[in-house]
What we know:
Layout: E1 5-9, E2 12-19, E3 25-30, H1 41-46, E4 50-55, H2 71-84, E5 90-95, H3 97-108, E6 113-119, H4 143-154, H5 158-162, E7 171-175, H6 184-193, E8 197-201, H7 208-211, H8 213-225
Parallel strand pairs: 3-4, 3-5, 5-6, 6-7, 7-8
Antiparallel strand pairs: 1-2, 2-4
Amino acid sequence: xxxxxxxxxxxxxxxxxxxxxADGRPLVALHGGATTGATWSGLAGALDxxxxxxxxxxxxxxxxxxxxxxxxxxxxxxxAFLDALALPRVTLLGHSSxxxxxxxxxxxHPERVAALVLAEPPPPVPLGLRxxxxxxxxxxxxxxxxxxxxxxxxxxxxxxxxxLTQITSPTLLVAGGAASHLPQRELARxxxxxxxxxxxxxxGGHAVHTARPAEFHQVVWDFLASTAG
Length: 229
């Protein structure tokens, strides 16, 4: 079990969950589009000896909804989170838009990322994603955050692709296969561009970590076992 804790960042009060031993290998897990840090409870339970931190990103869950959103803002929030919790170097894991924030941080601050896991990361190419209809019931996040992120994924800055070569950490990219709405060929190209990346495919679609949890947990565990913390 975990409880929600909070940390004060510049201009943002961020909620997070933490699992695992205090002296365990630090892993920071970033959720995707319509979820919160709670999505990583199963993974945390499967990683023996790992200290898993799972923040609710800005606009989501119990974190503040400041009204300003964007993937580079998420990146900067995560860096501030690492600083606030005195985590100088971590394994960084992200799903979907959380994976974008993760690889942007690994590009900009490679010294802070010991290893990188990207689960179905939207590749930094124009994607033509369609924003789903707004739910009739208020969702557990600021709808403006979802709108801003989808718009940015559809028109990403060109340097995001160019700077994939600046990621120096060992990287695992998990693709969800044919059931995913993301272009799997572009995910393979993305893995080829990151110098120390390996590609794993689990046919679970975009939400591969919840659709095929046993396989996902195993491939992450095997990767962590092969890398330094």
